Amino acid sequence: xxxxxxxxxxxxxxxxxxxxxxxxxxxxxxxxxxxxxxxxxxxxxxxxxxxxxxxxxxxxxxxxxxxxxxxxxxxxxxxxxxxxxxxxxxxxxxxxxxxxxxxxxxxxxxxxxxxxxxxxxxxxxxxxxxxxxxxxxxxxxxxxxxxxxxxxxxxxxxxxxxxxxxxxxxxxxxxxxxxxxxxxxxxxxxxxxxxxxxxxxxxxx
Length: 205
Known about the structure:
By secondary structure, this protein is α/β, with parallel strands linked by helices. The protein is built from eight helices and seven strands, in the order αααββαβαβαβαβαβ. The protein has helices at residues 4-14, 21-33, 36-52, 69-72, 87-96, 123-132, 146-159, 184-192, and strands at residues 54-55, 62-63, 77-84, 101-105, 137-140, 165-168, 195-196. It has a five-stranded mixed beta sheet with strand order 4-3-5-6-7. A two-stranded antiparallel ribbon has the order 1-2. Strand 3 (77-84), helix 5 and strand 4 (101-105) form a beta-alpha-beta unit. Helix 1 (4-14) packs across helix 2 (21-33) and helix 5 (87-96) crosses helix 8 (184-192).
């Protein structure tokens, strides 16, 4: 145990994902050795993160305004909707430079054992966008995990009544992996080689 403020910082850092007690201790001592101005900038950035960044009202991606920069971009095609689990997956797909449509962030994947049911995800919002918008193709760009595959199958069933094409990204990604850690070439090929999962009319772009 360390002096109160030091232990408090270690305890708080330990609560972050991927940060264990030893890593938290190293970070705490690094902050302790930094100039006060450096620590103040970090503290200010964290406060600004919570105060200024929210979720896009259209796609639920991270946004500093009511809508994100992608939804505001008139060059993006409203006929394609790429469904991902988390905002970080949007960044992963954007790095491929293969996709020019819009996104929809579910906020996770189905996981009954963890209590994540369809009503805990933004499925209702997705169906509303499809019903009210110009969408012709929904791309299920979900992680190739058990939960991701189950979510893709569920969404394919929910989207079946609509007159559109539903595709799933190709198996260029390793099973059990996350989009966040895929390289641009692998993810780009997976996106370009997506496959149809419903019998909707029209081409797959």
